[in-house]
């Protein structure tokens, strides 16, 4: 190997090994509201330190690191301003990633990842070992983290919601049920694009926190209802298309089949199932979207779920009473695809829980 090639490979590995440090820089920047303090201005580190109650020298070092990571720019007067990437940490932007950053760098997520080796050896989520309960049960007892989770999911959905509404023919339906829909951000985009539709957000009581206000703010509150429930027990009836975005990757195959069979039970024969999920390529190659694979491992260590290939999705749908009828990738850089399932007739028999 040539010297320059060897140096390049070394730099790549070193950069990856430092990755957790970069994540903490972004986390602290979000917690200190650096982007909100800067907004469209240029300020010195001393000024920012006073504004957020930090040590001036340490703040200067943090801001330099942010500049090195491409989040800030520093001029010759040691004044800092936001870059395009750094501005995504502002909480007032519609495309803000502030909540997503806080969730992904939260100590609970970091704690789960410290057990990646255990999860690789056992195949189970380290989160349950570290915290004594599964992730979603933990969220139920941690209101602030639950609020961050809902906000982060809403932010992630906001970036793709209009594309989903644009790239799928919802006009042939009358009622959309957004299963696991949280704040209803995706459903609102669909309803705005199709004024004749009605909608239902189906989620746990914790998941629906904030949904009423969000749907009203987005102008669709009068066409939407909220239904609390547990998709492991049953799914609300009355819809002719069920949409699940980033829901099934949280769960293992057996749990996914349970959820999907309940969808099949609630859907009419003419209905459709639409999954908005990542579809992994059949073969992993360098230069592919590495975030897909990191997300896959995040599902492993936190909740025991996984990202899936087209063949995996085909098998899940087949086991649940659906036929995979279409897979439509959304335009790049979005990593999601629209996976359509058509009900198979007759419905599969769902075993009763008391048997």
What does this molecule look like?
Keywords: Methyltransferase, S-adenosyl-L-methionine, Transferase. There is one protein chain. The protein has helices at 3-17, 19-31, 34-38, 45-52, 56-68, 98-104, 107-113, 116-122, 126-131, 135-140, 143-167, 185-193, 211-217, 253-266, 290-302, 310-320; strands spanning 43-44, 72-74, 79-82, 175-179, 198-203, 224-228, 241-245, 272-280, 308-309, 322-329, 336-343. 35% of the residues are buried. Helix 11 runs parallel beside helix 12. It is built from 16 helices and eleven strands. It starts with a helix and ends in a 12-residue tail after the last strand. Strands 4, 5, 6, 7, 8, 9, 10 and 11 form an eight-stranded mixed beta sheet that branches. With 355 residues, the protein is of the alpha/beta class.
Judged by helices, strands and strand pairing, the structural class is alpha/beta
Provide the residue-averaged pLDDT: 91
Indicate the low-confidence ranges by residue numbers.
none
Q: Sheet with the most strands?
A: 8 strands, mixed
Kindly report how far apart the N and C termini lie. Answer: 64 Å
Order of helices and strands: HHHEHHEEHHHHHHEHEHEEHEHEHEE
The general outline is globular
Secondary structure tally, helices: 16
**Taking Cα atoms only, what radius of gyration do you get, to the nearest Å?**
22 Å
What share of the residues lie within helices?
40-55%
Taken as a percent bin, the fraction of beta residues is 15-25%
Query: What is the count of β-strands?
Result: 11
InterPro entries: COMT-like, COMT_C, COMT_dimerisation, SAM-dependent_MTases_sf, WH-like_DNA-bd_sf, WH_DNA-bd_sf
Domain O-methyltransferase dimerisation: 15-90
Protein name: Methyltransferase
Domain O-methyltransferase C-terminal: 113-323
